[in-house]
Design a protein that fits this description.
The protein has 2 helices and 2 strands. The chain has helices spanning 18-33, 38-46; strands spanning 3-6, 12-15.
């Protein structure tokens, strides 16, 4: 689960777990395997919503 941490200056930091990172990489690999160029991968990822669950 991702944890949002507020700091004193109002900026937010998102701490992600190992499972979150593996999930993001898996999503990237699924998208990238069907592409042949970097720009095509970027275009597909820009059109894709990827969510990380928040720890409340």
């Amino acid at each position: 689960m991702a944890t949002i941490i507020e700091n004193r200056k109002g900026r937010r930091i998102i701490r992600v777990s190992t499972d979150d990172i593996i999930s993001l990489v898996r999503e990237y690999q699924i998208c990238a395997c069907s592409c042949s160029t970097y720009s095509e991968i970027r275009r597909k990822l820009n059109n894709k919503d990827i969510y990380i669950p928040e720890d409340v």
